Amino acid sequence: METRTKNPTHSCNICGCVFSQKFSLKRHQRTHTGEKPFTCDICATSFSENHSLKRHKLTHSRDKRYSCQICGSAFLTNADLKRHTRTHTGEKPFSCIICGFSCSASSNLKKHVRMHTGEKPLSHHSNFKKKSFSCKLCAKVFSWNHHLKRHLQIHSGEKPYYCQVCGSAFARNSGLKLHMRTHTGEKPYSCDVCSSEFSCGSSLKLHMRTHTGEKPYSCQVCNSSFSRNSGLKLHMRTHTGERPFSCDVCGFSFVNSSNLKEHVRTHTGEKPYSCKVCGSSFSGSSGLKIHMRTHTGQKPYPCEVCGSAFSQSSSLKEHMRIHTGEKPYCCTKCESSFARSSILRIHMRKHSGEKPYSCKICGSAFSTNSSLTKHIRIHTGEKPYSCKVCSSAFTESSSLRKHMRTHSGEKPFICQICQSAFTQNVHLKRHFQKHSVDERNSC
């Protein structure tokens, strides 16, 4: 903004700012009106100031006079070259006087300082925007006429900007510029904290929230907050129950497309994510990430009640229901309720008779994938559960647990009548029948 003198003579009738010269006031007033009188005769992009137009025209002439001696990249101005050079030297000349944080650009330092001050800057003219330009096709309202013109391209389908490499078309020149980076590999936006690079400023802005912890999108129902608007939209489906992505095979629905993609792999058998330690493969990256904790022993989710720790947050959430007794998943056919949604889904198959898992060898069908896995061992003869004491092997882990009691002497099943103890529940049931017979004979 123009430097103001001690004796200003021209004042803005909107915000009260004062200037020493009339042309300075006129230039300032464009921040309120949105007027952009300087237009590029090549691409019709408009600017509020002449010097901005001159700088813009250099992008058409491709006159980039300032070259990097390290990598050969060229830039329009010497200032741009200096900023770029810091990506090679690692120089971070801008430091925070509060915490000592340093960065390569003054603009990033300004953003950082706001973390300390809590300042949330708005443009000085934001309070004067009035939405007065309406789209006659969809009734959407805009603050400036040029925003409306740009919006109308959505309805007209007009895409005047073409990529000379692949032929893709874009409604805006900015869209074409961004697209070109997919061909050139250019990533001009760098993170000052971890040096990650991005092709567009919006991606860098989202990335910075991983460092700052900023979560500007809040849920009005439960006050949960998110770093992205897409995260909030996804979260809202937990309140509305909306599941817009459905499986064409079994009809099961999901809140997002990525979960559907992983689910579909349970039908196709595709497991593109492999463990480099043991070779196990998974249908989703999240499954691999959780699996890796079996090798590292990492259990980052502890229970504050009993101290048990878990490798994933969902396991902790389900475990807490042991303490609370909560069973939020209710069957609509009977009065059964369950602590896990997966158990409810399996239970519902008892009512529907659905058996989506089929044996490719004999055609037998099962309601759960685990039942199918156990069944297939009848054909293969596989016994993956081995006793470390006597080398006996079993097809199921439950059979191994029962067997281990023959070595440990553990008898967890106790008769409430005579206190006799047994290694297996089936033995207790058989024993209990003797009491029933004795009771009938005594009568």
Entry summary:
This protein is of the alpha+beta class and 443 residues long. The strands form 15 sheets. The chain has a two-stranded antiparallel ribbon. Strands 3-4 form a two-stranded antiparallel sheet. A two-stranded antiparallel ribbon has the order 5-6. The radius of gyration is 34 Å and the shape is elongated.
Topology diagram in text:
Layout: E1 10-11, E2 18-19, H1 22-33, E3 38-39, E4 46-47, H2 50-61, E5 66-67, E6 74-75, H3 78-89, E7 94-95, E8 102-103, H4 106-117, E9 133-134, E10 141-142, H5 145-156, E11 161-162, E12 169-170, H6 173-184, E13 189-190, E14 197-198, H7 201-212, E15 217-218, E16 225-226, H8 229-240, E17 245-246, E18 253-254, H9 257-268, E19 273-274, E20 281-282, H10 285-296, E21 301-302, E22 309-310, H11 313-324, E23 329-330, E24 337-338, H12 341-352, E25 357-358, E26 365-366, H13 369-380, E27 385-386, E28 393-394, H14 397-408, E29 413-414, E30 421-422, H15 425-442
Antiparallel strand pairs: 1-2, 3-4, 5-6, 7-8, 9-10, 11-12, 13-14, 15-16, 17-18, 19-20, 21-22, 23-24, 25-26, 27-28, 29-30
State which percent range the strand residues make up: 5-15%
Coarse shape: elongated
Number of helices: 15
Portion in helices:
40-55%
Overall SS class:
alpha+beta
Sheet having the most strands = 2 strands, antiparallel
Number of strands: 30
How many angstroms separate the termini?
105 Å
In words, what does this structure look like?
It is a single chain. It is built from 15 helices and 30 strands. Helix content is 42%, strand content 14%. The protein has a two-stranded antiparallel ribbon. A two-stranded antiparallel ribbon has the order 3-4. The protein is an alpha+beta fold and 443 residues long. Strand 23 (329-330) and strand 24 form a beta hairpin. The longest helix is centred in the last third of the chain and has 18 residues, at 425-442.
